[in-house]
Design brief:
The protein has 4 helices and 4 strands. It has one domain. Helix 1 packs across helix 4 and helix 2 packs across helix 4. The protein is 41% helix and 6% strand.
């Protein structure tokens, strides 16, 4: 799947993978926030595709790499691109994923919870083994 098409839970998954976070085997307590110091993540609490408090530290630490990718994709006028103006955090996270894995990643599917993806011929991943 082209990284530029990642969004929502798929993008969250690839950001977590890019950051080297381990998937929690059990869901956190209801209302629990994501703990950025834990080295782990769960789809119920980690949403860097839409949440600046999750994406901000990544952007701060990886800004120059993210900016290089955006320059490759959109040219030097990338800050003026409408799609980036309207959805900057998602584009910054896509660029971060591309910096770690390139412009193409495996499509993922899970069959429960926020991971209930529908896609063409996806690669099925057993989340318990991640």
């Amino acid at each position: 799947m082209n990284v530029k098409r990642l969004e929502g839970a798929r993008l969250d998954y690839w950001v977590a993978k890019s950051a080297g976070l381990k998937l929690m085997t059990e869901a956190p307590d209801a209302g629990s926030p994501h703990d950025p110091e834990s080295g782990s993540w769960h789809p119920d609490t980690f949403h860097p595709a839409t949440n600046w408090s999750h994406a901000g530290p990544i952007v701060a630490n990886e800004w120059f790499v993210i900016e290089d990718i955006l320059n490759e994709w959109f040219g030097p006028q990338w800050p003026d691109a409408n799609m980036i103006i309207h959805f900057p955090v998602a584009w910054f996270m896509r660029a971060y994923v591309a910096s770690q894995f390139g412009d193409e990643v495996e499509d993922i599917v899970a069959e429960q919870g926020p991971w209930a993806f529908k896609s063409g011929d996806p690669v099925r991943i057993d989340l318990k083994n991640l």
